[in-house]
Amino acid sequence: MEERGQKNTRRHQQERRRRNAARRRRRRRMRIVVLCILLAVVILLVAGITAAVRAFLKSGDEKDGGKTAAKDITIEDVQEKDSDDDISSGGTQADDARAVKNTATEEHHKTNGLAICMFHYVYDEADPPDDLNNNYIEVHALEEEIEYLVENDYYFPTWEEVRQYVEGDLLLPEKSVVLTFDDGAKSFLDLGIPVFEKYKVPATSFLITSNDGENKVKEYQNDYVTFQSHSDNMHRAGGNIGHGGIFTAMSHDDAVADLEKSIEICGHGDAFAYPYGDYTDECRTAVQDAGFICAVTTENRRAEVGDDPLLLPRVRMSLGQSLDSFIALVE
Fold this sequence. Notes:
Blueprint: H1 2-81, E1 115-119, E2 121-123, E3 136-138, H2 139-151, H3 159-166, E4 177-183, H4 186-199, E5 203-207, H5 213-220, E6 225-229, H6 252-266, E7 271-273, H7 281-290, E8 294-300, E9 312-316, H8 323-330
Parallel strand pairs: 1-4, 1-9, 2-3, 4-5, 5-6, 7-8, 8-9
Helix pairs in contact: 2-4, 6-7
């Protein structure tokens, strides 16, 4: 009897332990379920808050965008109203210049070549220089020519656009022209730059940087005339080709070093003008290795599709040319 009682006691204890273990398992499962539910609730709350914040930020952006669009329309209205006073600079214009678009189409685009005008020096007829020669233009004649370009809505492509044009990748408007002045002479800096500032027209000054280039860039920096390289110290004698410029006789490394120095001083390396117009295949390679996208010679004609962008011709501007002559050269 005692043994049977002990067995019953052990059985009851085992059943109690099983029941207790089962209850603990149920409680653990319940805690897990509750934790999962709480976690799901937290995730949903976070997702809802995130969505609300995003919606709020988006609504703010849309409001700001609406204000910006309204502001742009106002600016465009003003630009259209003042269009007679502004002119394009081919994608690098000052903020107050009118943004003239490239209006070329498959039906209407420049087909007779692009005039890259080659000027040098500027003078005032009231005080002519002692060495007046064919490379000069009188300042009032220059202003007359620039005024004509503005009044007739000429487009002034950038050097990148010039490269794309001759490579056949870009159409230009029928009225397009590029204006360049060689040497960076004081006569141009003092008399020519004010003309371009007045009419808000872009031009390139090919600067011989060894000739006080750093001070010229600093003193004459402006929004419309960009300083590009005419070499640092290669505008001098020393070669046996063409006009005898030294570029054709220099080693590749020396030439590239000179060009890189001029780029550093000018602050731009888009275009290069060969000194005296002299070059060889080796000169062209040095220009390419220095990183220029365009280079101009003194060959007297318009640039055409298919021309080498590093050996571009230019149209020479001469002393005493009439406005009609200028128009015939550029239109």
